[in-house]
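ok, trying the design again with the full structure, not the truncated one.
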């Protein structure tokens, strides 16, 4: 994470922030890769959310360790156990939503979901990380394989 987002990680964040600002959600749980949260990057991210987007940092919960979609859900449920009993909505790119919902189902978690608009005219690869906390917006092949293997 470097304080800015690009590509469709930004779609997820912008749509989640819009839901927050419209009063549709009270808290945001942001998941990401462990490397992104080193060297004070979480504070940079929280500062950006507050200063640029008007999101109260008290309303943001960061799960910094997940390396793939399954871990995003699993670790977030461990961090915020009330997610199971609360009215929860998962926001992700449409291209990743099936994998996200399969991960949720494997963990016996059935949230509402919101798929962001994805520009399908682009060339898509497995090199894109599932998290809005990505340093460089890429996922290596090992993590991509781990992600799919966790879902089945």
């Amino acid at each position: 994470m470097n304080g800015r987002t690009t590509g469709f990680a930004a779609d997820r964040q912008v749509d989640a922030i819009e839901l927050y600002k419209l009063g549709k959600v009270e808290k945001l749980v942001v998941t990401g890769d462990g490397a992104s949260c080193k060297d004070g990057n979480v504070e940079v991210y929280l500062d950006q959310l507050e200063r640029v987007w008007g999101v109260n940092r008290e309303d943001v919960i960061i799960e910094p360790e997940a390396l793939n979609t399954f871990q995003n859900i699993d670790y977030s449920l461990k961090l915020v156990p009330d997610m199971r009993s609360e009215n929860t909505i998962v926001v992700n790119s449409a291209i990743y939503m099936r994998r996200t919902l399969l991960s949720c189902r494997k963990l016996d978690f059935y949230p509402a979901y919101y798929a962001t608009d994805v520009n399908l005219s682009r060339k898509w690869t497995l090199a894109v990380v599932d998290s809005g906390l990505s340093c460089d917006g890429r996922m290596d092949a090992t993590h991509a394989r781990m992600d799919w293997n966790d879902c089945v």
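Keeping the full-length input from now on. The mean pLDDT is 75.
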